[in-house]
Amino acid sequence: MCSCPISSTAVDAGVPHLVAARPEQGWALLCDGSIVFDDSGELHPDGSVVPPRRLPAERLAVAA
After folding, report:
1. What is the pLDDT of residues 2-61, one digit of tens each?
2. CB 45 within 8 A of CB 32
3. Closest-CA residue to 36 (of 56, 24, 50, 47)
4. Which of 16, 46, 48, 54 could bond to 30 as cystine, CB 3.0-4.6 Å?
């Protein structure tokens, strides 16, 4: 796995950068080993999961 060479004084400090993206499959790999999904869910290297943050159906935009 590659390292995340991000300076602690940088504007984006602590934000892992993109290593690989597969938009056709709906996911991207970050330099810290995390996988982020298009539905806003995440899978971390330690096995922890961040569930997708979904809006209630009544708040979704509807095309006219």
Report:
1. 567 555 556 665 678 899 999 999 999 999 899 999 988 999 999 999 998 876 767 666
2. yes
3. 50
4. 16
- Cβ(30)–Cβ(18) under 8 Å? yes
Rounded to whole angstroms, the Cα distance separating 20 from 59 reads: 32
Residue 28 pairs with which residues in a beta bridge?
21, 36
Q: Which amino acid is at 60?
A: L
- Read off φ and ψ for residue 43, nearest 5 degrees: -125, 120
Distance CA 10, CA 28 (A): 23
